[in-house]
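Fold it.
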Amino acid sequence: MSRKLTDLVPAIVLLAASVLTASVGAAQVSLQEQLAAQYKLAKMGSDSSGYSIIEEGTPLAIQKGGIMGLPYKSTIWPNNTFQDGTVHASTLQTANSGKASDIGKKFCGLTHKCPTAPDAASDERATKLFKVGDKVYATKIDVKTDKDTVTLSIVACDTCNKTDPPTYNKANVAFQFAKGTLATASAGQVEDTIGQLLAISNNDSQSGDQGGQQQQQGGDQGQQQAGGGGGQQQPAAEQPPAEPVNIEKGMTPDQVEAAMGKPEKKVTLGSKVIYYYKDMKVIFLSGKVSDVQ
């Protein structure tokens, strides 16, 4: 009997190693998928008139200056790094100097051809620094836990920024985390870091609709007051305070939906399910609440 157990030991060790490797890979995929669920990617297209956004993504507002971009038709994506709360822009920002020799040194070798002197005002290599408040979309998310980086490729929302003519300036922003921390970081922690530079913003169209509704409500109230003459205005009935929402560990998805309503987004990763609400995330494991962020 002992001899048979000894024969099984190598197989058991191999199985355990396979399970561990699969678990590590699943964790990496999990972070990528959770970020993709939080930041809907925009899609670009082109025709005879040039490039344009054919599918909008999650609008993001620039929170800090220093991100350097180039027009979308450029073959180069400027690389920027965000680390310890500071933006470190690409060295390509010196291209605005207008010196052909300097520009050639910066660009030659990054593309398959060396450029000639550009017109700084209109050339596709004319750089731009995004301003605080500019709206952008993410077009790609790249998670590399071995390098502790999460890179977002962004493109300007020119309709939001009222840029005319549109250039759809683009850039890569690599969020650099401390060595060895990204592999164990939660999606919420990564999103908090991204939010320091690229905060999720409301769509301008939605804001405009809300403003119009408020103006309409204000106008209706004014008409009611004017039409009422000297009539006594009835006091508004006081509403009792709403009961606080209580989410507890071990609750089922049905119980959470009964308390919070339907989630804005839902991500399913095997036995792990994530409900995304406006100001929180509810994480289920095997059909029970395991964490709230």
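Residues 19-28, 93-122, 205-215, 226-231 have pLDDT under 50 and may be disordered.
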